[in-house]
Amino acid sequence: MSTSYMNYTNANVQYFSDVNKNRLNTRDSKNFINRLGRDVLNTLGNVSLLDIYLSEDRVVEPHYHQNAAELVYCISGAAVVSLINPFNNKVINIPIHPGQVANIPQGWWHWEVAAENNTHLLAIFDAPYPEYIFGSDILTKTPIEVLAHTYCLDAEKLKETLAPLKNETVVIGPTNECTSKKSKKKSKQARFTYPSIPSYHQPMQVPHWYPYYY
């Protein structure tokens, strides 16, 4: 569909873009996110996308998009897309394999965890510039005193707990520093165990496994 704001006779009209050249975030060479928006490809309408690459156990951190719904398509590997239904506060875990999608309504709190190495996801939004509010920003930008007072927490312990975030937006977690520490401490530091995720040719069963976030 043509866009009303675009003069298609203009010499600056764009019909092609290389998503690989537009990086949103990099954790390392195997965990990164590329993006495409109207600022990059000016003939786009109300649509944009994120091209997501993850290793096993890597997480696109909990976040929400206040201005856009999101459709997550699995290209390769496997992932679990999790969201909180704000109407009943229940967590929904949706495992996806290549060719399968998970839909996240606008404004819903959600996250994605890779269940395999070389997981490749495509996130499609119904807005030219999806807005993001990340969990790490909520934790680090909200004053410690406010969190401690509101939830009856020990301010000093809370400050110590949040210190490893270094007041930064994580986007793809865990951080490399955290991953290195876990590899040294091995199984005692395990936060969760993956369920047996059904293959794409089997009936979909949504596991309720995330003690980490319940």
TrEMBL record:
Protein name in UniProt: Cupin
InterPro entries listed in its UniProt record: Cupin_1 (IPR006045), RmlC-like_jellyroll (IPR014710), RmlC_Cupin_sf (IPR011051)
Signal peptide: none
Domain of life: Bacteria
Segments forming domain Cupin type-1: 22-159
Pfam families listed in its UniProt record: Cupin_1
Organism: Priestia endophytica DSM 13796
